[in-house]
């Protein structure tokens, strides 16, 4: 077997999920998957595409009308890529894999945030690249000074990941400006994963891809799994200027040929109507975010208010357990499942990830159990 592959561990999220599936009746707050159905206009358009037998391979880059639609949609966020600079992928996952594969040689250094979505590091390790972690501050914003030091270190690429899984942090205007000033001075390739960009709770969205003076070095990875609540339908996209797109397409072509045809057609036809459901989902996530945040604060779990995505990352440091021990105890003793922070990198230790893309009833029930369990735990400690 390939040595790099052998050395890579399966994601800590999956590992814990496997543990949860063995506990009968456990309430899970572990999944990063909205609990809403696919918006009706999209469902209907996908079924229509199937009935019209639009089931052949599409062009490798995806169908042009959808690429154009994505280009127009991104323009509403001040991100300017032409349709030719958009490639439809099999979820954000394939996008990330094919991008990293196209960019990184064995041994190349790649800057990856810690904590962050485990796939970045996993893919980099499979490719034999060298991972250099950059740290986040207490509020999970980028530690610009740390990054500045690490950027000097002969780095090929940097991965940005906002809104963040697992922290829910987004880039503020000031952080974005600092980051832009720093990256502008470097020649590093910037890979920005913006799969949660449709779930932000502030009005303004900030992205490195909004800066024309670095855009020729930016590769944007995004997708529809979270936006349209269609994690199983597997469509995402990658945007890049020709220099990168040309090479990326070779990997993408040999990897998957093209993304699923009927979903592409469905997305194209149902896009505009489907966007209405995106704001409904976002408003609901905001209500849940506020509810979960207030409950956690009231039970003495310190956390930063998430500004995007649908995760919250409270600190459990004061309990003197590792995040794995904490989550395992919580699961085994009262059957509530959260993901240990260590699954997202060494600096995720001391935290747990709670996903709040669950129904309010589930959130209320599980948080009641957590609160009671913490009371008992605190009593035992006195
Ligand atoms: N990036 C991040 C930050 C994610 O959290 C995920 C999925 N959880 C992905 C990319 C991949 O998403 P997809 O389902 O589109 O492959």
Strand content: 5-15%
CATH topology heading of the largest domain: Aspartate Aminotransferase, domain 2
Largest sheet: 7 strands, mixed
Which ligands accompany this protein?
Answer: 4'-deoxy-4'-aminopyridoxal-5'-phosphate
C-alpha geometry: globular
Task: Name the helicity range.
Answer: 40-55%
Look at the helices and sheets and give the structural class: alpha/beta
* Distance N to C terminus: 52 Å
CATH class of the largest domain: Alpha Beta
The pLDDT mean sits at: 96
Domain Aminotransferase class I/classII large: 27-364
Organism: Clostridium simiarum
Protein name: Aminotransferase class I/II-fold pyridoxal phosphate-dependent enzyme
Keywords: Aminotransferase, Pyridoxal phosphate, Transferase
List the helices and strands and how they pair.
Elements: H1 3-7, H2 12-21, E1 27-28, H3 40-51, H4 64-75, E2 86-89, H5 91-103, E3 109-114, H6 119-126, E4 130-135, H7 144-151, E5 157-161, H8 173-185, E6 189-193, E7 218-223, E8 236-239, H9 242-256, H10 261-298, E9 311-312, H11 323-334, E10 336-337, E11 339-340, E12 352-355, H12 360-381
Parallel strand pairs: 1-10, 3-4, 3-5, 5-6, 6-7
Antiparallel strand pairs: 2-8, 7-8, 9-12, 11-12
4'-deoxy-4'-aminopyridoxal-5'-phosphate binds at residues 32, 91-93, 117, 161, 165, 193, 195, 223, 225, 231, 236.
